[in-house]
Write a structure and sequence with these properties.
The complex is a heterodimer of chains A (about 450) and B (about 475). With about 450 residues, chain A is α/β, with parallel strands linked by helices. Helices cover about 35% and strands about 15% of the residues of chain A. Chain B has about 475 residues and is α/β, with parallel strands linked by helices. In chain B, the strands form three sheets. Chain B has a seven-stranded mixed β-sheet with strand order 1-7-6-5-4-2-3, sandwiched between helices. A three-stranded antiparallel β-sheet of chain B has the order 10-12-11, covered by helices on one side. The longest helix of chain B is centred in the C-terminal third of the chain and has 20 residues. Chain B is globular, with a radius of gyration of 25 Å. In chain B, about 60% of the residues are buried. Classes of the chains: A alpha/beta (about 450), B alpha/beta (about 475). At the A-B interface, helix 1, helix 2, helix 3, helix 4 and helix 5 of A face helix 1, helix 2, helix 3, helix 4 and helix 5 of B.
């Protein structure tokens, strides 16, 4: 390993130019009491090949989705990432650039973000979006802050069918924002518009998810209308992979649309890094957090792109900024853009339709009682008649991971198992799932 | 250059999606179905790849050339890290996989937690925060939880921040529900300790400090500063943006800091990807450990698990265990250096001081001291004498093939140019950059318009930023809009 370039001769010449005898002298400003005075205890330095072996050993101890047949979803999905995504992301000019503070040096990434912003607006039916958020959880906290700035109100309404991790993140940050959180329970896996309307009274925003965490399709237009009637900004948390076949939140009256970008172009990567998106109607342009790219022109009138609306941002406004965000997830958002350009409108519809068709096929094939008798997209919950955790553990011994134990987050649903179906699954694999479930005593159809 | 939407032709596509051979009937209610298809690009794969390759040629990364952007620590990103993060056992691991089937990932995270704690001299680490700014918000929320537990939260409403702080610090303070109390910087670039004494009291929750500061200077009276806060019952927060100066040399925990965030993407060489991803892991002294976000990776015997049972935890700050791919790269980077991390920091500081020595007679120097890993010079003289600003110098540097330094920051220095070479640059590169900086001074004397019209060599010339904010064109609209 050698990531520095200085020779002994270089060092000597450089110290002479500085006018010191040793590198030590450069640290004279550090008081003696706060110097370490011993080597760091971080393990011996490894050569690249030793490192590769060590890391390969660690990676080999993980059971990734290639090593078992997996129906795990619950917010992170095994959709295919095409090779062209990797090819673009490994371009060093994208991979190793910083935030584009100097636009003349960074037209490539600025135009890419502008194209990403366009794609997200097209998917969600919104007017504008930022250059991405950290993930699908933090953009919900961002939405709360936007709504507080826009409405001056402090109540946050969350549907209980919103992803549990999203709700947890909102609850962590809401008190610091000076906001309080109320939740609206579900009935048979879906949110009741009348209950949402009552809770939304005097609230800053109401966030619901479509399709919701339990896989169920909410009556999203009715929920948006209910939030609006209560005076709260309607916010939909949506899955980009559903938006080839499900209605865009902008077309049913949402003020903001947020979501987790992972399924569109990012690997699972044990939870990250991924990207979140936060799109809005024009009215909220000046409250949005994070980077936004805008079109402009240069001194010769040529089209170009810059970071814009920076008077919202922390480096200009400091304590009066709309958020503290500096980094976003540009590289992962770029992966999202490349993916969306790869699938195109027809491919996105096909991925949605085929994932949905596989899930519907599995519903019929397994014949298990569904936990919620409602339409679903590519994921649904069944009752297994025994604790889902046990079913999962036993199926895994047969090389099949049947899904997510809903009881982890929803008390009283201990025998509920949620299974996800992407376009990568096949009818034959659904047969293997049925066999594994049958073998561990779950009453699947013959 | 055209947008990908402008290259789009109806009917073209790159993707092929597997057909399961099932009937395409839909169980989706009519009222929930998409009414108008999204206008995504319609291109074939060759055109798709060429489009993004062409875009990449209009961009500049550390792989392209020298990128001395102050406070951003633009060091070489080892390529082996990209190979490692692409190992299927990491890349294709579902985050809800059972702990027993994610032992390699959990061990990596557990080891990284321990290594990071050792590097900064603190007790415990959460890897969950997504970026530096989120680490700040997490750290401040931990401070809130600590004071709530002690019944002092209502009383302690202020966080002290020096003028030289990154803008993220005051913004995070506001978002965490605190008030910013500013403290001045003295003539040596240190915190003005007399001013500080007057501003710290029973209303103080803590200090947020970057050390070395954004001036690239180490706080010489850090022990005294720490005791002022601790004597007042307040806590000290360390912004880890400049940690690259002191690894293996001096540890924030030993300086008296109680909580800090790392920028794994700076110090430990996560490629920054044009604006992210990063990671803002947070380390704390033991008094703050009970409040750390859940889950934390714990070791039991020879196995590892995610511990969700943390009753005093502030809760979750991000999905799952954090940005795992960033952990893979940071851990790999640290393991390749080992205890040599000290050499990394020493070399970064040597490189910075060498550049400072070469530039000090050509630009104004606001604080005449040895710097740490970065330094700030001022173009005030150029502006006064030739009308050329720090921005003009930055733009002209592009014509010499360099990414400009950070400009107009920190705010306490007029016409600031903040330069951070990092440890990975060769002496020839440092010399070439300094030669260009000196030549630009001569150009300003002879031909100031050369600077004011710069850059001359990029795909676009200087862009109208004010016009962009006014016009607010934030997406492409098709011809029919």
């Amino acid at each position: 390993m050698s990531f520095t370039s200085l020779t002994d001769a270089d060092r000597a010449a450089m110290l002479a130019a500085i006018g010191v005898e040793s590198v030590e002298q450069l640290f004279d400003d550090i008081p003696a009491n706060v110097r370490l005075g011993r080597p760091l205890d971080v393990g011996p330095a490894l050569s690249e090949s030793e490192l590769f072996d060590h890391m390969s050993g660690l990676a080999a101890r993980n059971v990734d989705v290639n090593r078992e047949l997996s129906f795990l979803g619950a917010g992170m999905y095994d959709h295919y990432v095409p090779a062209v995504v990797d090819a673009v992301l490994q371009r060093g000019e994208f991979l190793t650039a910083y935030t584009p503070y100097q636009p003349e040096m960074s037209q490539g990434v600025l135009q890419a973000i502008f194209e990403y912003q366009t794609a997200i607006c097209e998917l969600t039916g919104m007017d504008l979006t930022n250059a991405s958020g950290y993930d699908g959880t933090t953009v919900a906290a961002d939405a709360c802050y936007v709504a507080k700035l826009a409405t001056g109100r402090t109540k946050v309404v969350l549907a209980e069918t919103l992803n549990p991790q999203v709700r947890q993140v909102v609850r962590t940050f809401a008190p610091g924002f000076g906001m309080e959180v109320v939740e609206v329970g579900h009935h048979d896996g879906a949110t009741d518009p009348d209950e949402l309307r009552a809770a939304a009274d005097g609230a800053a925003l109401a966030i619901f998810q479509q399709p919701n965490f339990l896989g169920v399709l909410e009556d999203a237009p009715a929920l948006a209308e209910a939030a609006n009637a209560g005076g709260a900004l309607p916010v939909a948390h949506v899955d980009p992979m559903s938006l080839g076949i499900l209605e865009a939140p902008g077309r049913y009256g949402c003020a903001l649309a947020i979501g987790e970008g992972q399924p569109a172009g990012n690997y699972l990567s044990y939870g990250g890094p991924h990207y979140g998106f936060l799109a809005a109607r024009q009215d909220y342009a000046r409250q949005l957090p994070g980077r936004i790219v805008g079109e402009t022109s240069d001194m010769q009138g040529r089209r170009g792109y810059v970071l814009t609306l920076q008077t919202r941002e922390q480096h200009i406004r400091r304590e009066k900024a709309t958020s503290n965000i500096t980094s976003n997830q540009t590289l992962l958002a770029l992966a999202g853009l490349v993916y969306l350009a790869w699938v195109g409108p027809a491919g996105l519809r096909e991925v949605g339709e085929r994932s949905h068709a596989l899930a519907e096929h599995a519903k019929r094939r397994l014949g298990l009682p569904v936990a919620f008798d409602r339409p679903t997209f590519r994921e649904f919950v069944v009752r297994t008649g025994r604790p889902a955790r046990e079913v999962i553990a036993e199926c895994k011994r047969r090389g099949v991971h049947p899904g997510y134990a809903v009881g982890r987050d929803y008390p009283g649903l201990d025998d509920a198992l949620m299974m996800a179906f992407t376009e990568r699954r096949t009818p034959e694999e659904i047969e293997r799932l049925a066999e594994a479930l049958a073998a561990v005593g779950v009453q699947v159809a013959a | 250059m055209k947008l990908i939407y402008e290259k789009s032709q109806a009917g073209r596509r790159a993707s092929s999606i597997p057909d399961p051979g099932l009937e395409n009937g839909t169980a989706i209610p009519e009222g929930l179905r998409r009414s108008v298809p999204p206008r995504l690009p319609e291109v074939a794969e060759p055109e798709l790849l060429r489009h993004f390759t062409e875009l990449s040629t209009r961009n500049f990364g550390i792989d392209t050339g020298f990128y001395p952007l102050g406070s951003c620590t633009m060091k070489y990103n080892p390529r082996v890290n990209e190979r490692l993060v692409g190992l299927p056992g990491f890349r294709d691991l579902h985050p809800y996989q059972d702990d027993e089937d994610a032992q390699g990932a959990l061990e990596l995270m557990w080891r990284l937690q321990g290594i990071l704690a050792e590097i900064v001299g603190l007790d415990d680490v959460t890897l969950q925060p997504a970026a530096g700014s989120q680490g700040e918000l997490t750290g401040l929320t931990l401070i809130s939880a600590y004071f709530k537990d002690r019944g002092e939260y209502e009383q302690r409403r202020e966080i002290v921040i020096p003028d030289t702080a990154h803008g993220t610090n005051p913004a995070s303070v506001t978002m965490a529900g605190y008030t910013v109390r500013k403290v001045n910087v003295d003539e040596r670039g240190n915190i003005d300790v007399d001013d500080l004494r007057a501003k710290v009291g029973p209303q103080t929750a803590g200090l947020m400090l970057t050390n070395p500061s954004t001036l690239g200077l180490f706080e010489e009276r850090i022990e005294e500063v720490a005791s002022i806060f601790h004597d007042a019952g307040a806590l000290l927060y360390y912004d880890g943006a400049n940690l690259n100066a002191v690894c293996g040399i001096s540890r924030p925990g030993d300086m008296g800091f109680d909580v800090l965030h790392f920028n794994l993407h700076k110090t430990f060489s996560q490629p920054h990807g044009g604006g992210g991803p990063g990671a803002g892991s947070v380390a704390v002294r033991d008094i703050l450990e009970p409040y750390l976000p859940a889950p934390i990776v714990v070791r039991e015997g020879d196995s590892y698990r995610l511990d969700h049972d943390r009753p005093k935890s502030i809760g979750r700050v991000r999905g799952f265990g954090g940005p795992f791919g960033v952990f893979v790269r940071a851990y790999a980077f640290i393991r390749m250096w080992g205890p040599g991390l000290r050499d990394m920091s020493e070399t970064a500081v040597l490189n910075a001081n060498y550049m400072l020595a070469r530039l000090r007679d050509h630009y104004e120097l606001p604080y005449d001291r040895h710097c740490m890993h970065e330094f700030v010079v001022s173009a005030r003289g150029l502006k006064r004498e030739h009308g050329a600003t720090a921005l003009d110098v930055a733009k002209r540097l592009m014509d010499y093939g360099f990414h400009p330094p950070t400009v107009y920051f920190p705010l306490v220095v007029p016409e600031a140019l903040m330069i951070e070479p990092t440890e990975t640059e060769a002496r020839e590169t440092l010399d070439a950059f300094c030669d260009a900086m000196v030549e630009i001074v001569r150009e300003a004397e002879r031909e100031p318009d050369l600077l004011k019209q710069a850059p001359h060599s990029r795909p676009v010339s200087r862009l109208d930023e004010a016009g962009a904010a006014k016009r607010m064109v934030l997406r492409h609209h098709g011809g029919d809009d």
